[in-house]
Q: What sequence folds into this?
C-alpha cells in the first residue's frame, strides 16, 4: 500500500536565518512560531509576523493561507502557533529589501486563545491603602485650614 503524506523538515530558528542569511537565501525553509501583531491583508496577499520566541520574521502569503489564523498574539491573546514552509529572502527585492519568507504552505500547529491576566491582590491592597491615605491627608488638610 502506498501512502502519500507531507513530510516536514525540522524548522529553522530566527537566529539561524539571521546569522546564516546568505546560506538560506532563496532556499525553502520551515519556520515555526507564534503569529503576533496583526494579519494585514494586502489585495490577494497578506503579511503576518511569526515569532519563534527570539525574533519575529515577516511572512508574505496568499490571503487564502491565512484564513484559519484566528488569534494573533498581543497582551490579551496568545497567537496561533504555525509552521510556515516557504522561500527565504535575505533581502527581498519585491518588498523593499526586507528579510522575509514567501509562504508556500502555512499549517496551524496549535490554536491561540485569550490570555487572562489575574488581578494581583497585592496591587489591589496597595491601591486601596494609598486611596485611604490620600483621603486621610485631605481630611487633615481641611481640618487644619478650618481652624
A:
Amino acid at each position: 500500500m502506498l501512502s502519500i503524506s507531507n513530510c516536514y523538515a525540522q524548522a529553522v530558528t530566527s537566529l539561524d536565518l539571521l546569522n546564516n542569511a546568505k546560506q538560506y537565501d532563496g532556499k525553502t525553509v520551515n519556520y515555526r512560531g507564534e503569529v503576533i501583531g496583526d494579519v494585514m491583508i494586502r489585495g490577494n496577499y497578506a503579511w503576518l509576523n511569526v515569532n519563534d520566541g527570539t525574533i519575529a520574521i515577516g511572512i508574505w502569503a496568499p490571503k487564502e493561507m491565512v484564513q484559519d489564523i484566528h488569534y494573533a498574539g498581543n497582551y490579551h491573546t496568545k497567537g496561533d502557533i504555525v509552521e510556515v514552509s516557504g522561500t527565504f529572502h535575505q533581502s527581498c527585492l519585491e518588498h523593499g529589501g526586507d528579510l522575509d519568507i514567501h509562504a508556500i504552505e502555512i499549517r496551524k500547529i496549535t490554536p491561540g486563545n485569550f490570555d487572562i491576566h489575574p488581578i494581583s491582590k497585592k496591587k489591589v491592597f496597595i491601591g486601596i491603602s494609598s486611596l485611604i491615605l490620600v483621603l486621610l491627608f485631605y481630611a487633615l488638610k481641611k481640618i487644619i485650614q478650618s481652624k
The domain at 14-114 is CATH 2.40.50.140 (OB fold (Dihydrolipoamide Acetyltransferase, E2P)). Strands lie at 28-42, 45-51, 56-62, 77-78, 81-92, 98-110, 113-114.
